Structures are given as structure tokens and as C-alpha cells.
Amino acid sequence: MKKVILGLAVLTATSLFAECTLYKPCAGCHGAKGEKKALGKSAVITGMKADTVVESLKAYKAGTLNKNGMGALMKGQVSKLSDEDMKKVAAHIEGLK
What we know:
Mean pLDDT is 86; it is low at 6-18. Helices cover 65% and strands 0% of the residues. It starts with a helix and ends with a helix. The chain has four helices and no strands. The longest helix is centred in the N-terminal third of the chain and has 29 residues, at 2-30. Helix 1 (2-30) crosses helix 4, helix 2 (50-62) packs across helix 3 and helix 2 (50-62) packs across helix 4 (83-95). By secondary structure, the protein is mainly α. It has helices spanning 2-30, 50-62, 71-78, 83-95.
């Protein structure tokens, strides 16, 4: 039983670390808790719904979204993220307070 609990704790910690690591580049503009308007232009993303974040990230990656003239910059930021990475980042953002 202890091995199962330890295994779950390691899995959870690894998942949270991955989310935080994936969010790290975002924090430069959006803030550690998503509290900043990126470059004074974007909305504050703290607590934004994960589905909305994923939809936006996919659109930025596809080059079909250009909110506040940030399309090219965001496309570069999300170009290396997989769909699974986007879901992890989105879950992290949704959990920000």
C-alpha cells in the first residue's frame, strides 16, 4: 500500500513539475500567477478556463489568432508545444489564483 501511495505522490509531483516547467516561458510576460497583462496588451489569464486556453493556444499555433497584435509573438511561443503540452499549460493556468 505504501508503494502505491508513494507512486501516486511521485506521479502527481512529476505532473505538477511538468506543468510549471511548461508555463515558465509564459511567466516572463504573463507573470508567475498569470496576473499581468502581457506587454500591457493581453487579458489577465489567472484562472482562465482550460478549454479556452487550449483553443487560443491552438489558434495561435495555427496562425489564425492575432489578439491585440500578439499573433506572431504567440505563434513563436507555442510552436514547440504539443497538444498534450497545451492541455498541461491550460490546466496550470486554470489553477492559478
